[in-house]
Amino acid sequence: MSHHPLAGKVALVTGGSRGIGEATALRLADDGADVAITYVSSGERARSVVSRIEQRGVRGRAFASDQADPEQAANLVDEVVAAFGRLDILVNNAGIFVTGPIDAEETDQAAMGRQYAVNVSGVVAVTRAAAKVMGEGGRIVSAGSVSADRTPFPGLGDYSATKAAITAYTRAWARDLGPRGITVNAVQTSSIATDMNPDVGPFADVQRSMNALGRYGRPEEMAAAIAFLAGPDATFVTGATLNVDGGFNA
C-alpha cells in the first residue's frame, strides 16, 4: 500500500477546527488527500489547521458554514467542488452535546432544537448535497457516539437519539448509494479527550472507569478509524458502525 493511499482524493471534514475533526483532517492530509474543513466561529483555529494541512504537501481550505442551517449545505458542497474540482470523501464530524432530562422544566428547549439541527438535519443536508457530486469509490463516514446504543446517565435522551438517528441513516444510505459504489459508515466513540469532553475532573473519572481500557481515547485514535473507512482497504465495508470506544460497550 502506498504511503499516501488517498493521493488525488478530496475530503470534506465538517467541524474540522478542533478535537476529532482537527485530528481527522490532519490524518487524511497525511494520507495524501486535499482537505476542506468547516467551522462556525473559530476562524483563527480553522486557519491554523489549514496551514498544518498545507505543511503536509496537500491543499487545504476552511469554509465558514453553520450546520444548524441545512440551507447552507448545498452551497458548502458547491464551494468545495469549485475550489478543489471534486469531492470523494465526506466526514460528518460536526456535532454538539446538550443534556437535560425529559421531565426537567429548566431544560433549554432552544438548545435542544439546535442540537437536533446540527447533529441530524445538518448531517442529512450535507450528505444529500455530497452524494450528488460523488462518483464511484466515494466515501461517507459519520462520527457517532456509543450513547446511541447505551444511555448510562440521565439527561442524555436528546443527544443519544441524534446519534442513533445517524447510525440508522448510515444503514439506509448504504442501501441508497451502494449501487453507485459509494460506501457509508459510522464510527462511534465513548470518551475522547477534547475541548468538549476534557479528561480531567470527577465526571472524567467516572467515564474512564466505564471503558475496559480504563482511559480516555485520543482524537488521533478516532481519526485512524475514520481514515481506514475512507481509504482503499475498506472497499467492501458499508452500512457498518465501528465502535472505537475503549471497550465501553463490551
UniProtKB/TrEMBL annotation:
Signal peptide: none annotated. The keyword Oxidoreductase applies. SUPFAM superfamilies: NAD(P)-binding Rossmann-fold domains. Keywords: Oxidoreductase. It comes from the Bacteria. Residues 9-190 form the Ketoreductase domain. GO terms for molecular function: oxidoreductase activity, acting on the CH-OH group of donors, NAD or NADP as acceptor. SMART domains: PKS_KR (SM00822). InterPro entries: KR_dom, NAD(P)-bd_dom_sf, Sc_DH/Rdtase_CS, SDR_fam. Belongs to the short-chain dehydrogenases/reductases (SDR) family. This is Oxidoreductase.
